[in-house]
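Example with several molecule types.
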Amino acid sequence: MRRSTIAVFLRKRVIRFLLIIGLIGFGLVAVTADYTVVPLLGGLVRTTRVILDAGHGGIDPGAHDRCGVLEKNITLDVVLRMGDYLALHGVPVEFTRESDRDVTGEEIPGKGRHRRDLEGRLKIINRGTVGVSVHVNSSGDSDEHGAVVFYPKDSEEGKRLAEAILQKVHKVQSLNHTYVVPRTNLYLLRASNVPTVLVEMGFISNPEDKRKLQEPAFRQQMAVAVSEGILQYLEDKR
Ligand SMILES: [Zn+2]
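Resulting C-alpha cells for the full complex:
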C-alpha cells in the first residue's frame, strides 16, 4: 500500500470508528431518556415477545359507521404505531397482521371463517409472552363512550397487564369503565396461554370518540399509552 492509500484507508477506518461511537452514544441517550427502558435492557427483553393483534381485517371490517370509517383500519394503524414505539424501546414485537387481511390465510367467507380467524390469531399470540388485541367499540347508545380494557377472568397476570394499560390510557382517553373488566366469553382471552388483554379504544358510535379515532394524533397518543402500559407491566414483572 502506498502512503496516500494507507492514509485514505486509515481515514476510512477513523470515520467508521467515529460513526459507530456516535451511534452508540445516540442509542444511550435515546435509551436513558426514558426511565422505563433501562431495566428492560438487562435481559428481560431477550425473553420477551409482545404480540400485537389488530382486530378484524380483510372481509371483516369490524365496527363501522356505515360511512366508510372501519374498525379494521383504525386498529391496524394504531397497532403499527405501537410496533414502532415498542421496537424503538428495544422490545421484540410480532403482529398477527400487518396489512388489511384476516388471519385465516384464506379469506373465505361463510361458516367458520370467524373462528378460523381467531384461531389464527391465537396461534401467533401463543408464540409470544404477552398479547394485546386492539379494537374499536360500538353501541346502540350514541352517548356511550370511552375506553375499556378486558382481561381473562382468573388470570392474575392478565389483570396486571390490563391495569397497567388502563392507567396509561386514562391519560389520553376517557374511560367507559374506570376498572379493568374480567371476561369469560372472549375466545382470544380465554384460550391464550400467555397474559392477553383486549383494549377497546373508544366507540365509533359516539360522535366525539369517532372524531378522535380518525385523528392520526389521537391514534399516536393511544398507541404510545397502550405501549407504555405494556412497558410498565414488563418492568413491574422483573
Ligand atoms: Zn372489534
